[in-house]
């Protein structure tokens, strides 16, 4: 199963921005994210994201 940016955004709804990549991974671990989703979060190119749009754009670079 491939995780889409939309699915990730839905899963991460409610996060306060800015958010670090480390915090995204921690959020995923605490909320039962799949192994695939956690791998995608760890692979994100930036250390910090200032908005959901910025995070979505980073996710698009992984696709």
TrEMBL record:
The lineage of its organism: Bacteria, Bacillati, Actinomycetota, Actinomycetes, Micromonosporales. InterPro entries: DUF2795. This is DUF2795 domain-containing protein. It comes from the Bacteria.
